[in-house]
């Protein structure tokens, strides 16, 4: 296999080109919506992007550069939340394994995460930031699996909706593999 050939064990759902085009659109949507981010008491009015690690680091890296092209220059911070361990089924309990460096009180925050599935991770992140006094909390998810929702929560910005399938690539892993793939796909089981 050469570096440019797709991994034969993966069925590609979203190509690198399709992801790049959608990330550009999302950045435009976010920038045109930032006027609606309300209640910030931060005098700089700066948007703070909170990236939920690890799965969304590739998406976030592309999104902040697309935001810059769209005219926004947000601050960026990171939080590590875990609900999966090394398997492909959520454990049901979200744990905070690495906290933010920034104080979010009074800030307008945009949470960036990879996949919205049961909703527990996103709900936990939103509750945590609101309980710390964030003035406005919005959410941007690369992928949404609406069929899998167990907690009533929706994202403000969604890249793509998908069915009940476990996906890898573009930062997403299966037991720590496949994060470096430029596309998003499903691992073939046979
Ligand atoms: P939730 O808490 O059930 O909504 O799960 C969300 C988290 O599970 C995401 O932040 C991902 O890290 C992980 N996750 C959910 N589905 C997938 C998938 O298909 N591939 C890789 N990670 C996933
Ligand atoms: Mg995650």
Number of strands: 9
Strand content: 25-35%
Tell me the radius of gyration. 16 Å
What form results from the Cα inertia axes? globular
3D structure, described in words:
With 190 residues, this protein is of the alpha/beta class. The protein has helices spanning 16-33, 57-69, 120-131, and strands at residues 10-14, 47-53, 75-82, 95-98, 108-116, 136-144, 157-161, 167-168, 184-187. A 6-stranded mixed sheet has the order 4-3-2-5-6-7, with helices on both faces. It has a 3-stranded antiparallel sheet with strand order 1-9-8. α1 packs across α2 (57-69). The radius of gyration is 16 Å and the shape is globular. The model has no long low-confidence stretch (mean pLDDT 91). The site of inosinic acid has 17 residues, from β5 and α3. Residues 55, 83-84, 90, 113-122, 166-167, 172 line the site of inosinic acid.
